[in-house]
Design goal:
single chain, alpha/beta, 11% strand, 3 strands
Amino acid sequence: MRLLCPDLVLRSVFDLDLCELLSEGIRGVLVDLDNTLIRWDRQTMDQSFRDWIQEATTLGLRVCIVSNGLHHRVKHLAELLGVPFVSKALKPRRKPFREALR
């Protein structure tokens, strides 16, 4: 479980310095969907989050959504963003994170 404890806590994904991640050798990010990229009670995503995903992928970071959310909802949003996803993840179990890393 220690591996799943954050080294950094930010108020928003927008506070994450993507260039710094790359300079530290990090090549990918796993992001949650609900209350990270979208409010849990919404079906649509703000353009600013779409832009953040686009910036990350343009810089060369690989992005994968790991969500406890229902498959059809996570799939729909991930396809809009053009990123892979793991739904019904049952976090904090290890298996969904390993799947996301593949």
